[in-house]
Amino acid sequence: MHPRVKSPVRPELVEGRTGKVHFVRASTGSARTVVTMLSLFFLASLTSATSVLADKPLKVVATLSVFADLVKQIGGEDVKASYVASPRFNPHFIECKPSDVLRVKQADLLVDAGLDLEAWRGPLLDAAGNPNLFPGSAGELDLSRGISLLEVPTQPLSRLMGDVHIYGNPHYWMNPDNARIMAQEIAGKLSEVDPANAERYRQRLAEFLKRIDRKIAEWKQKAAVLQGREVVAYHTEWPYFAQFTGLKVEQFLEPKPGIPPSPKHLGFLEGYMRQHKIQAIIQPTYYQRDSSEALARRVGAKVVILCQNVGELPQAKDYFSMIDYNIDQLVQALGGGT
Ligand SMILES: [Zn+2]
After folding, report:
1. CA of 169 to the centre of ligand 1 (A)
2. Are strands 109-112 and 58-62 parallel, antiparallel or unpaired?
3. How many angstroms is it from 159 CA to the middle of ligand 1?
4. Based on the structure, what is the number of domains in the chain?
5. Other CB atoms closer than 10 Å to residue 132's CB: what's the count?
6. Ligand 1 centroid to 36 CA: how many Å?
7. CA proximity to 173, closest of 323, 56, 292, 274
8. Which tops the pLDDT comparison, 160 or 306?
9. Range from 36-45, 123-132, 253-262 that averages highest in pLDDT
10. CA of 91 to the centre of ligand 1 (A)
């Protein structure tokens, strides 16, 4: 992110060809020096072969922080990536701010989960009125398109099945094998929108894939103790994580996705957890914990907080540390055998 400059100097006027910003400190030099330097930069940009616009980092708005992180890893200094949904809130139900509308209005690219993960995306796009970012347009990347989806309903679609997930489970980024695919999709789209930097996106993608392949091997090895172990979850956010780790997650505090737990359903879960000797309830930070903690106490299990998004806890600094954290927490909670 660019530091703020308290002066009439607009940082984008002094961006170098590499996307790095050379700041002019108006407060330490004379106004004349600033003007002279600015004029030089401006003249240089006018005489360069490419336009000033092409030198600007691409403005990418992601719906979730985890997507913004992947965009940064592939886009590097060639993109300015931000996200809409605070990782501290349930990503299905976000209240967008006027500043979100403005950012989407000015964005070159929108990266989203697709399906019905972001119930708020349609109204946000309508408010921003940037047709280039509408679903299927050149400036939109729906990351679900490259993914083999799980829990795709076989019966006709209906909200009776729950408030969300009617097109299949949209929490697919929790499987690192899918993050590989998402990174490839991101690199492809960045190159399409910003062909001048395609080679740089390709290089960063190659580095990312090398790194994630090493980490996938490490995660698989660590998660071996989780194979076949069953936990109960608050919301069905985990089928892709389970696909990767071998964890078994079949019962949820929500009786249907997006529907809060009822006393009757909690009573059923109590019996189920005792019968199956389940030792942990998993959930991200943003669901209330009263029901999970009460249930866990009754059956002698523990509540394990895992991250769905980058920045949800300080330990989840980026995609890699988020998966590190989740696997470590589970291994710690369940690793001791049944
Ligand atoms: Zn969900």
Report:
1. 7
2. parallel
3. 13
4. 3
5. 13
6. 55
7. 323
8. 306
9. 123-132
10. 8
C-alpha of residue 291 to centroid of ligand 1, in Å: 18
Q: Is position 289 within any domain?
A: yes
User: Which position has the token pair 């019905």?
Assistant: 116
**Ligand 1 center to residue 161 CA distance, Å?**
12
Dist. CA 104 → ligand 1 center (Å): 23
Q: Are 125 and 262 part of one and the same domain?
A: no
Give per-residue pLDDT as tens, 227-271.
999 999 999 999 999 999 999 999 999 998 888 999 999 999 999
Domain hosting 32: range is 11-54
Report how far ligand 1's centroid is from the alpha carbon of 257 (Å): 6
Q: Specify whether 137 is located in the same domain as 75.
A: yes
Q: How far is CA 116 from CA 109, 153, 168, 315, 335, in A?
A: 19, 13, 9, 28, 34
CATH number at residue 207: 3.40.50.1980
The pLDDT of residue 223 is above 50: yes
Last residue of a domain, one of 185, 218, 251: 218
Spacing, Cα 238 to ligand 1 middle (Å): 9
CA of 166 to the centre of ligand 1 (A): 10
Percent of the chain whose predicted confidence (pLDDT) is above 70: 80
pLDDT tens, residue by residue, 313-326: 999 999 999 999 99
Mean pLDDT across 280-300: 97
Condensed to tens digits (0 to 9), the pLDDT of residues 152-165 reads 988 766 666 566 68
Measure the CA dihedral 291/297/302/303, to 10°. Answer: 10
